[in-house]
Amino acid sequence: MSHPEFHHPHDHAHQQTHQHTHQKEQAMTTSNESPIHPLALRLAGKDVLCVGAGTVAARRIAQLLDAGARVTVIAPQAVASIAEAAGSGKLVWLRRGYEPGDLDGMWLAHTATGNRALDARVAADADAQQTWCVNASDHAASSAWTPAVARTGEGTTVAVTAGGDPRRAAGLRNAIALAADTGLLPLRRRRSGTGSVALVGGGPGDPGLITVTGRRLLAAADVVVADRLGPRDLLNELDPSVRIIEVGKAPGDHLATQDEINAVLVAEAQAGNRVVRLKGGDPFVLGRGGEEAAYCREHGVEVSVVPGVTSAISVPAAAGIPVTHRGVATGFSMATGHEELSELPARADHTLVLLMGVARLARNTATLLGRGLPADTPVAIIERGWCPDQRITIDRLDSIAATAARIGVANPAVIVIGDVVRVSPHAAGRLEPAARTRQLLPVG
Ligand code: SAH
Fold it and tell me: Which residues form the Tetrapyrrole methylase domain (predicted)?
């Protein structure tokens, strides 16, 4: 409570704290027009009462337990999560209605019974004994609000209230969390001394196709070791103090060797930096991420892996091609070339996805034709998938190599071979409508 000698000129509520009258309630309402006073509570080991045990209460109780509060729940019935928490001793559940005296010894109360009158009674009792109370059914009359909270990492908590409108607060909180995750807020902490490496899959190129975790790590990085492929646009958004080391294609077309890349990762981490190794697609799909992770571990550098959206699946999708499709293909294989192609299933209903396959396209198609894959099996080549200059070329197995050579198909490109190509809206008109096509198109 306030210091006894402090009397705010408008604080009628304070002056009447000890009169449990109707008049007092009105005074409380008036005082609620004053600006709220945000506080961050340390609840560890503190008793908190929750009256009501429905879904709203369950969310709050989970937060209170996270904060280490000693939670007592009062309700005749409870949702499963609360009953389970009681069963495992994480909280105390008194299976009965609210009674006067239940608030004794409580630092904070929360009432969410679904019954407005009962919530009001709990809140009034709490006021009477100077216990803060969040009243879920009446924000305006509530002595305390639960803000919408975002934990933005590195010990930062953002709490938002929006004039008692929880939806607006949650919307704003989400926007702040997104800005934090994407590096738009200056939340990078000072270097801590222990460096680390995160192998982050950046997806096929579109900045929207990196994971939320990947983006968050990127926003917190001191050093980014970047490839030629992947979401290059994200590099432009990084704080100017972030060092970007290009290992894909350095000026003068020098490609860093894997040994050089490994050495850079370890050296930067050992210098205390948070290093993000940003890779195209998924780090563990033809990305040598396994070697980089092993090298870091061997050198005592903490390393984590954040999976990414691999081009093997997502680049066909950019052309509307599902790698499997009911009634068309139940499986797919990914390969880089010749040797594997002489062993993988050569059937139009088993999708083949070739990465890094442009140079050997003629040889690869000859191998597949030689293995009996029908000449009219459709093939799609998607160059620069998910990038603004994406190009899709679709043709038959026996003519795709000549077509690709004529129009100058170039890396990076994903080649898809199999009947699933017919599912693409881009296939219409480019392949002769084989009799079996109609059968193979999606049903329903
Ligand atoms: N780890 C990556 C693959 C790296 S190998 C992943 O999971 O996607 C590099 C090959 O990936 C390229 O030769 C090309 O075949 C393919 N590739 C990557 N990004 C691509 C893109 N945006 N469009 C087309 N092909 C792409």
Answer: 197-400
